[in-house]
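Tip: read the tokens left to right.
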């Protein structure tokens, strides 16, 4: 018994370069040019989950992403972790996609590759953090899905059991395969890449598909096909207003007390002498 497994990952901006992220003034999308990317941290848990299934049951792990061409480096890292092949969906037409358009494009990419018994994702991305893509992707593919999975066990070729983490515990589910699991950080500890893994990754297949290679409705992709459209972006005024108080010391103190009370400060309950001693 073996499984055909897919893992959806997302390259996200390197946290050490967050200060360089800007918003495009016209289309209101994040400007990522020139900013290094890393694999979304919890997506590495998804890769690890897929690799553990492969090691126990056999099969193949395919990693897929929708991203600019620079994401090839991130896919090579996933291959170095142990994935068998990688697929990059890249096209200017995909740019600016919201979660709905992103999940649609990923679904069409997965359909292009073939049938999968299991699909893994992370619970959320470090940049968007909407947690919407896993469920939307499963809906496009018409398969069962669970979010925030902290533990799972495959019982046979047709079924698995999983624990979905909730605020004060977890809920146990049984799912028929094929299924999609969005795993949490508690699910496992991702393995590190090795020198041997990096060397092997260079020889593993990495396939690139553009919009023209996929069977998709181009009205459903990119910024144009996104139901969620950004509104106005503005910088709030954070300046402080200063006011000069004049007069003798007693007069200034009286004015200050009056203004503090007008601002809602309960001076009667504030022991200035006690505060000073502290």
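Filled-in amino acids:
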């Amino acid at each position: 018994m073996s499984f055909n497994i897919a893992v959806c990952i997302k390259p996200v901006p390197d946290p050490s370069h967050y200060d360089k992220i800007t918003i495009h003034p016209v289309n209101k999308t994040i400007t990522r040019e020139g900013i290094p990317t890393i694999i979304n941290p919890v997506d590495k848990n998804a890769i690890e989950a897929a690799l553990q299934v492969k090691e126990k049951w056999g099969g193949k792990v395919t990693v897929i992403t929708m991203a600019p061409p620079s994401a090839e480096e991130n896919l090579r890292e996933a291959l170095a972790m142990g994935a068998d092949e990688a697929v990059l969906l890249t096209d200017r037409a995909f740019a600016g996609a919201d979660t709905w358009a992103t999940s649609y494009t990923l679904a069409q990419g997965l359909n292009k590759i073939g049938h999968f018994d299991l699909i893994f994702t992370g619970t959320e991305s470090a940049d968007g953090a909407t947690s919407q893509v896993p469920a939307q992707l499963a809906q496009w593919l018409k398969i069962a899905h669970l979010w925030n999975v902290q533990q799972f066990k495959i019982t046979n070729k047709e079924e698995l059991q999983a624990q979905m983490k909730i605020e004060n515990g977890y809920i146990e589910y049984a799912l028929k395969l094929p299924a999609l699991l969005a795993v949490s950080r508690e699910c496992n500890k991702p393995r590190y890449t090795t020198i041997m893994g990096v060397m092997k990754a260079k020889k593993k297949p990495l396939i690139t598909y553009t919009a023209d290679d996929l069977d998709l409705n181009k009205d459903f992709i990119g910024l144009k096909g996104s139901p969620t459209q950004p509104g106005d972006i503005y910088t709030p005024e954070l300046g402080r207003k200063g006011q000069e108080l004049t007069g003798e010391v007693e007069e200034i103190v009286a004015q200050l007390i009056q203004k503090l009370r007008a601002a809602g400060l309960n001076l009667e309950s504030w022991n200035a002498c006690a505060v000073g001693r502290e």
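The mean pLDDT is 90. The radius of gyration is 26 Å.
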